[in-house]
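Task card 7
Instruction: Convert sequence to structure tokens.
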Amino acid sequence: MTGFGRGSATGDGFAVGVEIKTVNNRYLDIHVRGPQELASLEMDIRKRVNARLSRGRVDLNVNFDRTGETASYQINQAVVAAYVDALREIQHQFNLSGDIDVSAIARLPGALSSPRNDLTDKMISGIERAIDQALDNLEQMRNVEGQSLANEMNNRLQTIQQKIPLIESAAAGLVDAYQQRLQKRISELTARSGQPIELDAARLAQEVAYLADRSDITEELARLRSHVEQFREALESDEEVGKRLDFLLQELNREANTVLSKSTEISIKEAALAIKAEVEKLREQVQNVE
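Output:
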């Protein structure tokens, strides 16, 4: 689910700011960005986020500053020596003149570094507080969006539920429709041949029963109702239900496809297609649900 959260903390000699942004994703995908000196905390930060979130792409940015310290830099002598040797080799190879610019060397990656002391327990605690604050802020925003999303999904479930009685009503007259269709077809064939054909009522009833059995969708409609109710119950649950909703949508789509394949009635096919359309829209929205 999309969302944004921000947290901060200050302490003796440090200030930290954390920003968290989440977007839709089927799985939990955490990306942590911060200064190199916090690299040792990355695994703990991931665990902290994982304990609160279960789905979505998570971008977490940590800004960490040491306050009250005098800026100082350390020369990486091996790196600088390698740069100087490389520059002199370039001069020699291409017969170039000129002096080596000290300011240019100072700007080269890794030539100078700012020495840092180890992180103190207070600093680590401050970073954790800022992350927790950002997660709290994020969850508040996601809860508001989640309620709006649940309302929209309930409306789509209501649309699906309204289609089921329409299908049932159309399916109730299938037996008579099959019998009339067969009788009409036989009458057309009789008229073409010019010879009367005596209909075997038992045989006709058997064919009608066979066609009716092949197109029977009673079980599919019962399962559609059940899946809709389970989906609605899951939306009201306080537990993580994203994967369960994914499964229920697969089952709803499966039943709608079966109804389509079993029936030749236009009204039933239209209703089943409408159900499939709502399921596809729900599938996109469920990617936001944990």
